[in-house]
Amino acid sequence: MMGLSDAARRRGQAHGDIERWASIARLAEEAISPQKQACVSSGWSSRITRLASAPGIVDVSRGFDIDSVIAFSVAMGHLKPLVVSVAFLFPFALLCRPAGEGVYTKQQAARGQTLYAEECAKCHGANLSGGDDSPELAGADFMSRWKGKKVSALFTLINKTMPTDDPGHLSTRQSADLTAFILSSNSFPAGPDDLPNNVTALNDIAIEGQK
Predict the structure, then answer these.
(1) Most C-beta atoms within 10 A of its C-beta, which of 16, 55, 57, 126?
(2) Residues 41 and 151 sit within 8 Å (Cβ to Cβ)
(3) In degrees to the nearest 10, what's the CA dihedral of 108, 111, 117, 120?
(4) Alpha-carbon distance 167 to 165, whole Å?
(5) Are 86 and 67 contacting, i.e. CB atoms less than 8 angstroms apart?
(6) Lowest-confidence range among 49-53, 66-70, 128-132, 177-181?
(7) 28 phi/psi in degrees, rounded to 5
(8) What is the rounded end-to-end Cα distance, in angstroms, of the chain?
(9) Over 50: is that where the pLDDT of 81 sits?
(10) Pairing mode of beta strands 58-59, 97-98
(11) Helical H runs in 40-150?
(12) What is the pTM (predicted TM-score) of this model?
């Protein structure tokens, strides 16, 4: 009888654990905004999994064992709960840096402004308002198109396809300067360091909506 009672108690505990992790995943799903989820889904999930799989890593503030989160999620066969549960337990700074934290310098944006006048204004307008066949690069329409995307996508578009009459001639440094100017023109604040001129680093920065 005692053995049966112990088994029943273990089954009850396992059921409680499943409900607890499911609750954690639901809370994480609600807490993470769409652009942050984009950061997780586009390459960060494997990085998080490797980090969280390191032996002995525990989020002390919540007391949850990260390995248990991963083991449970894999056992249940759901990748999304795995990603959002781990993201919920880790500070989001480990996942993706928002452009609003200051990812370029004022000096870099000034260089980009000078370059924009030379290379881009003829199509996109002196005030970045766009032209007949060119989209605006500042304002609500720009943000609606780019919200939630990576800065690397904007950088690559500039570097590979602009200007349309001579695409690809801009250096990566010039492309980064132009990207910085566009961010500045959309009220993203400057910071202490230049925006990097390589895709890998820029892939870790998200264009989020202005608060």
Answers:
(1) 57
(2) no
(3) -50
(4) 6
(5) no
(6) 49-53
(7) -65, -40
(8) 61
(9) no
(10) unpaired
(11) 45-52, 66-76, 79-89, 106-119, 121-124, 140-146
(12) 0.61
Q: Which domains does the chain have, with CATH numbers?
A: 2-92 (no CATH), 99-206 (1.10.760.10)
Kindly report whether the peptide bond that precedes residue 192 is cis, defined as omega within 30 degrees of 0.
no
Cα 107 to Cα 110, 111, 180, 198, distances in angstroms: 5, 6, 10, 19
Joined together, the tokens standing for residue 152 give 């690397």
Cis peptide before 163 (omega within 30 of 0): yes
149-181: per-residue pLDDT in tens? Answer: 999 999 999 999 999 999 999 999 999 999 999
Pairing between β-strand 97-98 and β-strand 205-206 as defined by DSSP bridges: parallel
**pLDDT number for residue 25:** 56
Q: Which two tokens stand for residue 56?
A: 């002995």
Q: What is the DSSP letter of 134?
A: S
Residue 35 CB coordination number (10 Å): 17
Alpha carbon 68 to its chain's center: 25
